[in-house]
Design a protein that fits this description.
Blueprint lengths: L7 H17 L12 E6 L3 H4 L10 H16 L5 E7 L41 E5 L10 H7 L4 E7 L4 H11 L3 E5 L3 E2 L5 H12 L2 E3 L1 H9 L3
Parallel strand pairs: 1-2, 1-4, 2-3, 4-5, 4-6, 5-7
Helix pairs in contact: 1-6, 3-7
């Protein structure tokens, strides 16, 4: 069977026309940054960032870009709080994986396993929060919204995997809860050709400001 080649130029040509239509109709406006930032890293654990797992993505470049973003945030004079999520479930019985298991292999994501550890290249610090979630969005059934609100955070920078599922649902929930949302394009990973390009385009049109990671880093570096 002949291998199907994905041509991103085809998508980009379609997006150029779609951007024209959206802008004529008032979409793709800019949210901008607010007064206090936090970074939410979605599922950048080994099951997504390393090869050999059903959830594995082509994530090396996204991990590298996210590491640079985190370095800037950690060095910033204005404190930027950092969260890491991982979708994972109890190994004994897996009673906490619910209906979603009927669609995808959640039973391969065990709490306490090496696959559920945040990628070591991101160098999680002792003052940074790692939490487990059971659904796609980082806000679904977790205390994340309470934690952000209690610290007066109004802007979330979202990185991670995957573009079509956990990142997208986290972004949509964040804006629904009243946060400004920034997505550094190069920090997003997926496992399916075209998924990143399409979802970044659509999130930028409707839910978030998608921008180059270097622009986000430059903004952070200039915070006083």
């Amino acid at each position: 069977m002949q291998e199907v080649q994905f041509d991103p130029k085809v998508l980009e040509a379609a997006f150029d026309e779609a951007r024209r239509i959206y802008k004529e109709r008032g979409f793709q406006r800019r949210m901008g940054f607010g007064k206090k930032l936090a970074i939410i890293n979605v599922d950048l654990a080994n099951a997504w960032t390393r090869p050999g797992h059903p959830f594995s993505c082509d994530a090396d470049s996204a991990v590298e870009a996210t590491a640079r973003l985190l370095d800037a945030a950690r060095a910033c004079k204005q404190k930027i709080l950092i969260w890491f999520s991982c979708t994972a479930f109890n190994e004994n019985g897996l009673e906490d994986n619910g209906r979603w298991e009927e669609k995808i292999p959640l039973s391969t994501l065990h709490i306490g396993s090496e696959w559920a550890e945040i990628d070591s290249r991101l160098k999680v610090q002792p003052n940074e929060t790692v939490f487990y979630k059971k659904m796609a969005s980082c806000f679904a059934g977790t205390p994340l919204n309470y934690q952000l609100r209690s610290r007066d955070i109004d802007t979330v920078i979202v990185t991670g995997a995957t573009a079509c599922a956990c990142v997208r649902h986290t972004v949509m929930d964040a804006v629904a809860l009243g946060y400004k949302v920034i997505v550094p394009a190069e920090t997003i990973a997926d496992r399916i050709p075209g998924a990143i390009q399409w979802n970044l385009f659509d999130m930028d049109a409707k839910f978030a400001d998608v921008m180059p990671v270097d622009e986000v880093i430059a903004y952070i570096n200039n915070l006083k």
